[in-house]
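Hey, sorry to bother you again with one of my protein questions. A protein chain has come my way and I'm curious about its shape. It would help a lot if you went through both lines with me. I owe you a coffee for this, so here goes:
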Amino acid sequence: MNNTVYIITGPTATGKSLIAYYLSKRVNGEIVNCDSIQLYKYMDIGSAKPVLDDMQRVPHHLYSVTTPDDTMTVARYREMALSTINDILSRGKTPIVCGGTGLYLNSIIYDMQFGAGADDDSRRTELERIAKERGNLYMHQYLEALDPDAASRIHPNNVRKVIRAIEAYEYGKGIGDISNIKLNQKYDFKFFALNMDRDWLYERINKRTLKLINDGLVREVSELIAKGYSIDLPAMQGIGYKEIVCYLYEEIESAFTDALLIV
């Protein structure tokens, strides 16, 4: 049986989704999402999900599969992604994994095994509580004491990733030194990492940002808040979303201050 799996990854705005779409036409492929925010419903504009027309022309999987208040774990994503890949292969099609969430991608490419507790939210809840009480720097120092190599690769302000790294160390699997983890030999991976000149890439990112705003990103975030999704949810801390949240709340604060002055 054919076991070829294409991987299309790279920084934002490099055209991953477009290239995956045209590749699917040439290799009888189906696209599997590997972007952490595109997993969520109602988060279409800010996550730059493929356009509906493309998704109808070519089968797309693991897009909008859960709600923003559902915290996705790496172990759970890996199970879903591998099940999807196997299903595509069983039908004689070619899976094309597309996205830039590195840890999710590593969970497919490498033979990462997760302990029974790795999908248990109780320890994560405890670590999140400690982070709120003692701060980001404390959590980063705690990680540094456990796993200096992981700490050196994660910014102290990225508390979510710090907590993930602590969990991975405690379970003895996952984020550690990737060179010590064997490749997943079940598949024949064809890996393509897209890149381009930095100035050109930044220009594309700027243009994309303007397009997202024009397409209604502010409205999308407002509607998420109106639906009751907390701004503290991990999904709402995604790039683009957290900036709009700050914008909206500054606007709310400004309007409130103006109202007081009028009174």
About this structure: Strands lie at 4-9, 29-33, 60-61, 94-98, 188-193. The first helix runs from residue 16 to 27.
